[in-house]
């Protein structure tokens, strides 16, 4: 199963790098891994993803 996740992360990184270079690689990876690990509990996946995005937005907001 880890092979599937690795392939997904490689594809997401290629898209991020070429189309969305301003989005940190780590953010995309955290979201993808969270979704993958919680694919059997969509509510938990959604909540954790919202928290990841909120933390990132708060972080960049404090940098401005």
Structure description:
With 64 residues, this protein is mainly alpha-helical. It has one domain. The longest helix has 22 residues, at 42-63. It has helices at 2-19, 25-37, 42-63. The protein has three helices and no strands.
Average pLDDT value?
A: 94
| N-to-C CA distance | 40 Å
H/I helix tally: 3
User: Percent range for helical residues?
Assistant: over 70%
The strand count comes to 0
Q: Overall 3D geometry? A: flat
Major beta sheet summary: none
Low-confidence stretches: none
Number of domains: 1
Give the strand content: under 5%
**What is the chain-wise order of helices and strands?**
HHH
From the alpha carbons, calculate the radius of gyration and give it in angstroms: 13 Å
Structural class: mainly alpha
Which features characterize this protein?
single chain; 64 residues; mainly alpha; 3 helices
Topology:
Elements: H1 2-19, H2 25-37, H3 42-63
Helix pairs in contact: 1-2, 2-3
Explain briefly what this protein structure is.
This protein is mainly alpha-helical and 64 residues long.
